[in-house]
Amino acid sequence: MAVSSHDRMSELKAFDDTKAGVKGLVDSGITKVPQIFILPPKNRAEICETHFVFPVIDLQGIDEDPIKHKEIVDKVRDASETWGFFQVVNHGIPTFILDKTLQGTR
């Protein structure tokens, strides 16, 4: 069921007035995205087949060789300045700890 432009605006205002934000929606236990957050098909962006390749930083050997350490630091700096994020591999953090950390954020 589509929400008319007027209804959508009043629903958005009501949502803003609660000051609860998206966290308030999550805390309320919603299981479906509210209609006010779904763009009508005519307003949606076209599907894009662009595939991004983002930086992956391998920490293997960072403590074993000062030259390798500097190279890794330079890669982190470059990825941070250029992309703002990166993936780290061979960091030595066990998978079960990563899983527990993710569970703790949910």
From TrEMBL:
Family annotation (Pfam families): DIOX_N
Keywords linked to the UniProt accession: Iron, Metal-binding, Oxidoreductase, Vitamin C
A GO MF term: L-ascorbic acid binding
UniProt source species: Solanum verrucosum
Domain Non-haem dioxygenase N-terminal: 55-103
Source superkingdom: Eukaryota
SUPFAM superfamilies: Clavaminate synthase-like
Protein name, as recorded: Non-haem dioxygenase N-terminal domain-containing protein
